[in-house]
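Model: Ready when you are.
Researcher: Fold this.
Model:
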Amino acid sequence: MPWSNQNGNGGGGPWGGGDKNNGSNGDNGGPWGNGPKRPSNGGGNQPPDLEDIIRQGQDRLRKAIPGGGGRGTNGAFIVLLILGALVLYAMQAFYQVDTDERAVELLFGKPKQELSQPGLHFHFWPIETVEKVKIVEKQVAIGAGTSRSGSTGLMLSGDQNIVDVQFAVLYSVISPQDYLFNVSRPDDVVRQVSESAMREIVGRRPAQDVFRDNRAAIAEDVRTSMQTTLDSYGAGIQVNTVSIEDAAPPREVADAFEEVQRAEQDEDRFREEANQYSNQKLGAARGEAAQIREEASGYATRVVQEAQGEAARFISIYEQYKLAPEVTRKRLFLETMEGVLRDSNKIIMDKNGNGVVPYLPLPEVQNRRTDGGNN
């Protein structure tokens, strides 16, 4: 060491003093007097070597680090670096799929056919990557202002009227692979396809159908057209519902449309009143016609039955006439004369034309008899 007495001189180290045998003064030691002495071959106390102390500390550090620690602290740093790399790799290799999601693993950018269901999964990162898709029902709203694509709900109907249609589309993902890789920005594609389908269907129909009469049929036609278009794109999307929330004319012509609506309502009201009046008159006429038909039928039945009765009576008389012609002829004559003379004014006269009672006021007697019968 630098402070060791290599030459046997009296110059001591920081703790030791000079050798008394060399004639030096004992006060030439260190500040604390004579320090520890290194053992020597010749015996006696010598100070310990500092290199031995450092070497022993390094040996203890190697034993404390697993695997011996390499060379000093470099081994510990390498171990910590490896552990950190393993943690980072595990964070990239393991992924979590939520209940409302499905995941698609890609091997060198090519999607696999299998879907990752909800739960914890492992993949060989970085040669494999993961894309996640929400499978819950999504909604896109059109109209009610300007959409993100810059278009509005203003559309031209089949009768050349402008209508402002507000509608919503509910859709869900049924094929995550197609949804992710067949179309670019599939949500924007749904918006654009819905606007195009609605404009096409509205352009075929009059504005009145959109306003009141046939909204449900229009919504169903739009849904069918959207599904056909998305299937042709292979978008992996299913359109669940299309609902027309509101349809109104533009604000600039709203008053004119309201006037037209009121006129159409008045027309419907007048037509309904006319139908009611027509039904009332037609019902009464049909009732009277039915009554007349019933009366005519009753009259025809009565006349036919009377005629049949008279015919039967005549046949019965004829049968009696064949049995006794003279008696029957006389009886018929008497009955006929009785019927003729019963209600007629009669004056009895003799052969010479003189009345039996020439001055009797027969008309007055007859009138009195008739008045008496009425009373």
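Researcher: Now this one.
Model:
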Amino acid sequence: MNAYPLTFHPVLKQTIWGGRRLGTQLGKPIGADSNYAESWDIVDHGADQSVVADGPLAGKTLAEVIASNRKWLLGDVDVKGIDSKGSGRFPLLFKYLDCNRVLSVQVHPDDRYAAQMSQPDLGKTEAWYVVAADPGSLIYAGLKSDVNKATLREAVQAGQTEQALHSFQPQVGDIVFIPAGTVHALGAGLVIAEIQQSSDTTFRLFDWNRVDEQGNSRPLHISKSLDVTDYASGPVMPRRPDEEVAGWQTMVQSDKFVMQLMTKGVDTLGGDGKFHIVTVPRGRVTLEFAGETQTLGAGTTMLLPAASSTCKVAVPSPDSVVMASHLPD
């Protein structure tokens, strides 16, 4: 089968902290509702499945594409290493988030811990690109340098978890790397592009003392959170690409994924035997593939199969950016 970029229908998630910017800013099909919090653009995790939107594979889930065209899509990835149960699911998950309210303070386990849970999963290392940030918005990323397990427990029990957290006011274009074990929370007023391991394992450490209309708070996972937290890593600082550099810049190089950004110029992608997740958080870019040129608008996400030949990617304007993610060597 000839290789070509795959586009998918997104899996949309509604919660009380969602808004409308997934539709108005990123073109997601949210309709008239105003509480859409997440758009899972590339996902193969249980019942949550991306469905191919067009082309010869239209209507197939990502899991079905892997089952019938594994090497074409994944290349030489060791599929037994993707899933703790050896089922070979797609190893990464890409999503957009619209945060109208501050999210709960969370921490994710690593692969070893997650594999031992009653419902085994992958661990969850993730990275964020800040698409939009209202004035005064905050990101909480990592613990203050003097916080240990005992002081964090004390802060949580006193309802003062925020005092133990490192925070900063993000700018559009910031990249934040959140390895497994990093305590974190996204503040209100943010739109985020997130690449992560294909996992939905989250331990909630603190929920800002919120209660619902019946006076009930959401469940917390304090003991598990304290157990999996990395107390040595300290505060997490944002990263930014060099505005003078044309072509791809590697912003995150980890053992789970590589995240690249391009903010100007022309470069190539693919033709290396790896799959690549390509998305446009802001503006528009052009993709030239097999002699055809396609313009991708904000919020567009594609999956370039491992069997693809090299394509040319161009960023035509200074208010545009393209993000690409793949597995490390």
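Researcher: Key takeaway?
Model: The longest helix spans residues 62-74.
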